[in-house]
Amino acid sequence: MEKIFEDIKKTFSRAAGKFAKKSGEVLEVSKLTLAISAANSDIKEEYEKIGRIIYEGREKNDLTTEELNAHFEAIDGLLAKIGEYRQKLNEIKNVRVCPVCGAELSKDSTFCAKCGEKL
Asked: Going by C-beta distance under 8 Å and a sequence separation of 6 or more, which residues neighbour residue 86?
């Protein structure tokens, strides 16, 4: 009888470990998804600032690229962060992305299931 309880205890222990790992992965995916969303929102704000600068520069007939460059650099930095976040997401999900069509594929895929590209 004690052997049965020991087996049950081991089974529950393994299940709890798997559950903890999976819930940690779900939490990390949620954090990364939220970070991507926030970065996209920041990019949108930068685009709006660029538009405002261009419009006001046209009105005053005074437009310099110096003022715009800081916003361009901010957007480039945000896009790089999004790329890093997506790479981390792919690692957690254990997938890779087709370089042609962007489809998510299993790590061991030889060809893209969507577009047929050889990987």
From this structure: 36, 97
